[in-house]
Specification:
303 residues; TIM Barrel; 8-stranded parallel sheet; two-stranded antiparallel sheet; globular
Length: 303
C-alpha cells in the first residue's frame, strides 16, 4: 500500500503545540515519561524530577516527536491525591517545555483539575485514559487550545474490576469512541483537536487486545488520528510468553501491524528502536523517501 501523494485529509493535518503533523504522510512517535514509583514498565526509574526531564530530552534527541508525562498509572494501586498528581506532573511539564520549546508535551491524566494545570504549564495534549470519565474534562479541554486523546476503558482507573467481558469487542470499543467524540464536540472541542485510542489492555484481556490489533483499521476511519499504546503490555508478554524486559521485538511487531492498519501515533518506551521501525514502515508505505539511494544505482563495470 502506497500513500497517494495527491490525497490530503484535512482532518489529519494538525498543529499540535509548536509542531505541524500531516498524519496522511507520517507517524508520530510518543515517548513515555512516568513520574510514578509504580510504573509497570520502569518501576520508578524516572520518578525523580531530574530523571523524568532527562528522559524526555533524551527521547527527543533520539527522534521522538512528543513525550507523554504521567503521574498516576492506569492499573490498580494505592490512591494518588490530586495534589500529589499535580506535584508530579506540572513541574515536569514546566521543565521540559523550558528546555525544548519545539517538543510536543502530553499529560496522561483523567482528572480535569490536573488537565487544566498541565495545559497552563505548556502541555499541548491531554491523554485521557478514562475517555472523559471526569465530567469536567471536556469543558476544561474546550477552554484551552489542547488536543485530547479519547481512550476506551471500562470504569475508573486504579480500582479492582471484574474479569474483562465483551460480546463484540470491536463494535463496543468503536461505539464508545464514536459516542465520546460526539460528547467532546458537544462540549466545544472541535474534531480537529480529537485523537482516539482503542486502549489495548485497558480493562481488556489478551484475546481482546489481539482482536483490536487485527481489526485496527476499524478505528482508523473515525475522523481523528488513531493512537495506539502497545509497548511492553501484558498482551505482548502473554502472546509470546515473555516477561517484562524481553518484549521489545514483539512490541515493535505489534506497533508495525497497527501502523499498517492505519495508526498514526505510537506511544512507546524504547525510542531509538521505535524510531527506526516507524521510519522503515513509513518508507514501505510510501510516506517517505529513502534517506539515500545507492544500491544497484550505478552500472556494473567488468574488469
Amino acid at each position: 500500500m502506497t500513500v497517494d501523494a495527491g490525497t490530503v485529509d484535512a482532518g489529519m493535518l494538525r498543529r499540535i503545540g509548536a509542531r505541524e503533523f500531516d498524519f496522511t504522510r507520517q507517524v508520530a512517535v510518543m515517548a513515555v515519561v512516568n513520574r510514578t514509583p509504580d510504573s509497570f514498565y520502569d518501576r520508578g526509574a524516572t520518578f525523580a524530577l531530574d530523571r523524568a526531564v532527562d528522559s524526555a530530552l533524551r527521547a527527543a534527541d533520539l527522534g521522538a516527536d512528543w513525550v507523554d508525562v504521567g503521574g498516576v498509572p492506569f492499573g490498580r494501586g494505592p490512591a494518588v491525591s490530586v495534589g500529589e498528581e499535580l506535584d508530579r506532573v506540572v513541574p515536569a511539564v514546566d521543565a521540559i517545555a523550558a528546555a525544548r520549546a519545539d517538543l510536543v508535551i502530553s499529560v496522561d491524566t483523567n482528572n480535569a483539575e490536573v488537565a487544566a494545570a498541565a495545559t497552563a504549564a505548556g502541555a499541548a495534549i491531554i491523554n485521557d485514559t478514562s475517555g472523559l470519565g471526569d465530567p469536567c474534562m471536556a469543558e476544561v479541554v474546550a477552554g484551552s487550545d489542547a488536543h485530547i486523546v479519547l481512550t476506551h476503558s471500562v470504569g475508573p482507573p486504579r480500582v479492582e474490576k471484574p474479569a474483562a467481558h465483551f460480546d463484540d469487542v470491536i463494535a463496543e470499543v468503536r461505539g464508545f469512541l464514536v459516542e465520546r467524540m460526539a460528547r467532546a464536540e458537544a462540549a466545544g472541542i472541535p474534531r480537529s483537536r480529537l485523537i482516539v485510542d482503542p486502549g489495548h489492555d485497558l480493562d481488556k484481556n489478551t484475546q481482546h487486545s489481539l482482536e483490536i490489533t487485527r481489526c485496527i483499521a476499524e478505528f482508523a476511519d473515525l475522523g481523528a488520528p488513531l493512537l495506539v499504546a502497545v509497548s511492553n503490555k501484558d498482551f505482548i508478554g502473554e502472546s509470546i510468553d515473555r516477561p517484562q524486559g524481553e518484549r521489545l521485538a514483539a512490541s515493535l511487531a505489534a506497533m508495525t501491524a497497527c501502523i499498517l492498519g492505519g495508526a498514526r501515533i505510537v506511544r512507546m518506551h524504547d525510542i531509538a528502536e521505535t524510531v527506526d521501525a516507524v521510519r522503515m514502515t513509513e518508507a514501505i508505505l510510501g510516506m517517505r523517501q529513502p534517506a539515500r539511494l545507492e544500491h544497484n544505482t550505478h552500472p556494473t563495470h567488468n574488469v
